[in-house]
Amino acid sequence: GAIVTAGNIHFNDNRQALFGNSGNLSIVNDGTNSTVTNSAGNFLINNTSATGDSILRLGDAAAATSIVFQDSALAELWKMDSDGGVLHSIGNYNLADNVPLQVGTGQDLVVQHDGADSSIVNSTGELAIQQSASGSDLVIENTSTTAGDDVIFKLAGSTNASKFSFVGDSAGTPTSVLEIVPLSEDATAFGTGTMR
Question: Which end of the chain offers a freer environment for a tag, N or C, measured as fewer CB atoms within 10 Å?
Answer without folding.
Answer: N
